[in-house]
Amino acid sequence: MSLNCSLYVILSLLFISAVYADTLNGDDPLIRQVVDGQDTSSSNLLNAEQHHFSQFKSKFKKSYGSQDEHDYRFSVFKANLRRAARHQKLDPTASHGVTQFSDLTPAEFRKAGFRVAQVEVA
Q1: Residue 7 CB partners (closer than 8 Å, separation 6+)
Q2: For residues 104 and 112, is the Cβ–Cβ distance under 8 A?
Q3: Which segment of the chain is annotated as a signal peptide (predicted)?
Q4: Are the CB atoms for 18 and 117 separated by under 8 Å?
Q5: Cα separation of 40 and 26, whole Å?
Q6: How far does Cα 109 stand from its chain's mean position?
Q7: What is the CA radius of gyration of the chain?
Q8: Phi and psi at residue 113, in whole multiples of 5°?
Q9: What does the pLDDT read at residue 21?
Q10: Which of 57, 96, 103, 105 sits a CA distance of 20 to 30 A from 68?
Q11: What is the DSSP letter of 6?
């Protein structure tokens, strides 16, 4: 089950990257900042995540109804940033990063009606 879940997440991110490549313009500095040369010390990572989340909210005109919702979406966003960075390391030729869906969990993404084609792994 873990392999299927990992495959689904990878395919979801690839799908999102492909569908929104024209809006993100393959050289989006936000994507580059997310995956390139991160200082992984605790305080610098938190500052970077806060910075990326602020840019994300501004770029995609996101706002949340309460501080609790904001904090939850920030935690989801951080998890998605980390996932994108891991996937970028797995395939350096792909572009993984921030999209308008970066504050959604995989379950919320599926519930919104987005689907990823199933690919059989040989």
Answers
A1: 119, 121
A2: yes
A3: 1-21
A4: no
A5: 25
A6: 11
A7: 14
A8: 100, 5
A9: 45
A10: 96
A11: H
- One pLDDT digit (tens) per residue for the chain, 122 residues: 565 555 556 656 555 554 444 344 444 555 544 555 544 455 565 678 888 899 999 999 999 999 999 999 999 999 998 888 888 888 888 887 788 999 999 899 888 887 654 545 55
Q: What pLDDT, on a 0 to 100 scale, did the predictor assign at position 14?
A: 54
What does the alpha-carbon distance between residue 85 and residue 63 come to, in Å, rounded to a whole number?
25
User: Tokens at residue 11, please?
Assistant: 């395919």
Using alpha carbons, list the distances in angstroms from residue 23 to 29, 100, 120, 121.
Answer: 13, 10, 29, 30
Residue of 78, 101, 79, 97 whose CA lies nearest to 88:
97
The domain limits of the chain are 2-111
First to last CA, the chain: 16
Q: What's domain 2-111's architecture?
A: Orthogonal Bundle (1.10)
